[in-house]
Structure formats: C-alpha cells, structure tokens
Specification:
One of its GO terms (cellular component) is plasma membrane. It is found in: Cell membrane. Keywords: Cell membrane, Cytochrome c-type biogenesis, Membrane, Redox-active center, Transmembrane, Transmembrane helix. It is a multi-pass membrane protein. This protein folds into two domains: about 325 residues, no CATH class; about 120 residues, Glutaredoxin. The protein has 21 helices and nine strands. It has a five-stranded mixed beta sheet, with helices on both faces. It has a two-stranded antiparallel ribbon with strand order 1-4. Strands 2-3 form a two-stranded antiparallel ribbon. The chain is globular and about 75 Å long.
C-alpha cells in the first residue's frame, strides 16, 4: 500500500486562537497538569483492576463431549468475551478505534458493516489457526512465537501508530479501490485485513476454553465443527470491538481533541508493538523481566506513573509532530517516556512485592514470608530439553514418595503469567506445597523442539498453561489437572487432591 502525505488540517480544527495544531503548545497549564496526573494514575491503577480472564472452571469440552453443542458453544462464546477483557487482548481495542473512530464520519449502517467485517476477519484467523493446531497437535499460539512473525506484526503496529501521529495515510492503489468500491468499498476490505491482524495478535491469549475446545476437535477429528466453534470464540472476543466500532460514530467529529485521541492511540500501539517484540526475543524479555524484579511491583507502578505524567506534560498528547523542530522534539521525548513507562509497568506486574534494587540500597527489607519455590526449571536458559534429566527427577520424587507439580508455560502465554503473579505466591498455595512436600517443576515450552513436543504429547498438553500432577506413587494423574488461570484457593484444593490419593489418605 503506498504511503500518502496526510491532508492539511480540516476546517473543523480551526479555533479563535488559530489552527488547532498550533493551539497545542498554548494549552492551558492547569488543564495540562490535570491531564498528566490523570494519565499517571490510570497507568498505575488500571492494570490492577483488569480481570484475569477465563479460569479453569470454564470448560467447554465437557459439554461438547456430552453432545450439548449449544451449551458448549455458549461457554466458548463466554470464554471469548472474558478473554477480550484481559490485558492480553484489551490493548487491541485501540486498533478498532483507530479504524472506526478516528478516521472520518460514517453512518451507523456503514459502521456496522465495517465492524462486522473486522470481526469476521478475526474469526477467520482463529478458525484457521484452530484447525491447524488440532491437525499438528501443537499448543495453540506457539506457531506465532517465531521472531520473524512477531517482528512483522510489530512493524505493522508501528506503521499504524505512525499514521495515528499524522505522518501519512495508508491507502490502497486507486485502481484497486475502484474495484473494491463495486463490492462494498475498500473500507470493508481494509477492516477485514485489520481484523485478521488482530486475530494473529490475540491468538496467543490461550485459556481453558480453547484448551478444552482443541482437545475436543483433536478427538472428534471434525475440523468443520472445530473451526465453527473457534469462530464463535472469536465472536465473543469481538463484542467489545463491535460496541466500540458501532457507537464511536456518535462521538463529536470536530475539534482538535480528536488529534489528541489519535496521539493516545498511537502511543498505545507503539507500546503494544514493543510488548510483542519483547516476548519474541529472549534478551529483551530478560531485560524487562529483570527490570521488573529490580524495581518491584508497587514501586514500579509509581515510577511508571511519574514517567507518564512527565511525558504527557512535555507534550506526548497535545503537541504535534508537524509544527517545527521544537514541537517535534518535545513530543518525541514525551512519547518515548510514556512508552518506556508502559513497558516498565508491564514488567513490574511480574516482579516481586519488594524490588531487589531497594533492598540493596537499604531502603526496604527483604520479604521474610515463605516464598514459592521452583525446584527445577527445564530447560535451562539457552539449553535444550533433556528427557533423561526430567525422568531422573521424576524417579527421585517417586523414590522419596513426593507428589510432583509440573507447570507447562510459555513466555507468550498471558494466563501463565497470571498464575505466576497471582496464584503461586499466595500463602495457601505455598503452605499446601510445603505440607505436601511437592516437587515443583516448571517446563518452558516457549521455543518448540522435538523433545519438548514429545513431552507435551506424553502429558496430553494441548494448550498453555497446563499444570499436571503426579501422585506420590509416581502415577500421572488426569484429574486433578489445571488448564488456564485458577485462583489460589481452588488451586490449593487441586494440589491437595493430587497428594491425597487412595494410598495416601489425608
């Protein structure tokens, strides 16, 4: 698609003081201060308020296997809707706003058509990936973890963000636009394309609904039914997108504030691109994770909030890249600070309550409460998985009469991070692990390799996260088993079931 220079500011952006873009620099200092403070507070607080998404109790497979396809489809739809509200998918909503809310005035019918095309594009990708995952037996989302694929998606997001900042407009060739207009317009095709990209970006957000669904598809070998159910899952994810896409047409169109909205969307898209790149490249992931561990969860939120407030005050939102070198420099610095703050905020979410930096400086006391312990993490960084070493660990646990907890995770898996952040550090889970003398093993399935794929097949892992248990007698248990996020209290109950077998009454 050729890049065309954006058109001059429309008449709607003209104010008594001159062009709206030039009024950015003269924005009232009090209003700017309030906006900066609110932005900082939002960055600090909102990530803690977002839900964790579907948990392991929302299992569609048991309804599907019992022949209750309608109930199973309803559970699949509900799972998609809950997934849309998680931090993994929520950042994609600005893409919808950028396509349908920050462009040009559309009628309600036109917005309905564009949004429907967007969601259908997302659904087609989910259906195709679901069938492929069922055919190949690979964990859903791992096929999208290749750095080349993620880099391409990140570049697309950066291009879209640059467009939001007003550098250019994305447009199809005029000859192709003419042909598309005859069948509904280039906007419909563009919305479908955007939905497809969003489908790829949302695909790694696996949950128990998808895990059970893929298991059902694999057993039934009915790819048509599987594709249809995955399309239903995509429709559930698409509900917030649909509501925003249709109802944003009621927003007032005139005013320079619309350019501020586009700046906010551009910043969020840049941060999202960096987030995907971080998960694709181990060195970047380690840097962000290490930073989060150093600053800690609460201090990281405070630092991120301060950086956002400074960035907004400098002009990340209200200044323009098109008003000279000075305006460009202030806005660029502001955008950089806000993006850095968002990346830090994400890393701090996975950090401990007390950052190691503050402990080393003598400003905080190290945590004294019992902590969750991973006895083995396999494979080690930059090493290949060793089935022999794994079996040796299991044999030792059996000889000692210890139950085993095996957490299968990947760095691209959002629910895996939720387990690490919210469930394992909980006191009741730690107490159950200590009381039951659990041997805790973490299996890193981020990078696919033959020995790891064989292990996933051996334990029947069809989606991540999956937490499998082995009894003190060395028997691999099909129940209990955790697929997806599970809150601390029910998770501790599942652990107790694993150690309290018929041979080991509790």
């Amino acid at each position: 698609m050729p890049l065309q220079r954006s058109s001059p500011w429309p008449p709607a952006c003209v104010y008594k003081g001159g062009l709206g873009a030039r009024s950015h620099a003269r924005m009232d200092a009090k209003k700017l201060g309030v906006m900066a403070v609110l932005a900082g507070v939002a960055v600090a607080v909102v990530p803690w308020l977002l839900p964790t998404g579907p948990n392991a109790n929302l299992d569609a497979a048991r309804f599907l296997e019992a022949g209750s396809l309608a109930v199973g489809a309803a559970v699949v739809f509900a799972g998609g809707l809950l997934t849309a509200l998680t931090p993994c998918v929520y950042p994609l909503i600005p893409i919808t706003v950028s396509v349908f809310g920050a462009r040009k005035t559309e009628g309600r019918g036109r917005a309905l058509l564009l949004t429907s095309s967007y969601i259908v594009g997302m659904g087609v990708v989910f259906s195709a990936l679901g069938v492929l995952a069922a055919k190949t037996g690979q964990a859903f989302g791992s096929m999208l973890g290749h750095p080349a694929v993620v880099t391409g998606l990140a570049v697309f997001l950066l291009l879209l963000a640059t467009s939001m900042f007003g550098a250019f407009e994305l447009a199809l060739p005029s000859s192709f636009q003419t042909k598309l207009n005859a069948v509904g317009g280039a906007g419909v095709a563009g919305a479908f394309l955007m939905g497809s990209v969003s489908g790829f970006l949302a695909a790694p957000c696996t949950g128990p609904v998808l895990t059970g669904l893929l298991a059902f598809v694999a057993k039934s070998a009915n790819t048509t039914l599987g594709a249809s159910l995955l399309f239903v899952y995509a429709l559930g994810i698409g509900v917030p997108f649909f509501l925003i896409g249709v109802f944003t047409v009621r927003l007032p169109r005139g005013g320079v504030w619309m350019e501020w909205v586009k700046s906010v969307l551009g910043i969020m898209l840049v941060a999202l691109a960096f987030s995907y790149l971080k998960d694709a490249f181990p060195w970047a992931r380690d840097v962000v994770k290490g930073l989060g561990l150093h600053v800690g969860r609460v201090p990281g939120a405070v630092i991120a909030a301060l950086l956002v407030a400074v960035g907004v005050a400098l002009g990340a939102v209200h200044r323009s890249f098109k008003e000279g070198a000075r305006e460009f420099s202030f806005k660029a610095l502001g955008v950089a600070l806000v993006v850095a703050a968002l990346v830090l905020r994400g890393g701090a979410l996975d950090g401990g309550p007390v950052g190691t930096l503050w402990v080393s400086l003598g400003l905080a006391e190290p945590a004294r409460a019992p902590a969750w312990q991973w006895h083995h993490v396999m494979p080690a960084k930059q090493a290949t998985f060793s089935p022999e070493a794994f079996d040796q660990v299991l044999a030792q646990a059996k000889a000692e009469g210890r139950p085993v907890l095996i957490d299968f995770f990947a760095d691209w898996c959002a629910a895996c991070k939720e387990l690490d952040r919210d469930t394992y550090p909980a006191q009741q889970v730690i107490s159950e692990s200590d009381e039951g003398r659990f041997l805790n093993i973490k299996i890193d399935a981020t990078n696919s390799e033959d020995s790891l794929d064989a292990l996933l097949e051996r334990f029947g892992v069809e989606g991540l996260p999956t937490v499998a248990f082995i009894s003190p007698e060395g028997k691999v248990l099909t129940q209990p088993r955790v697929t997806g996020f599970l809150a601390p209290s029910p998770f501790a109950t599942e652990m107790k079931k694993a150690r309290c077998t018929d041979a080991n009454a509790c």
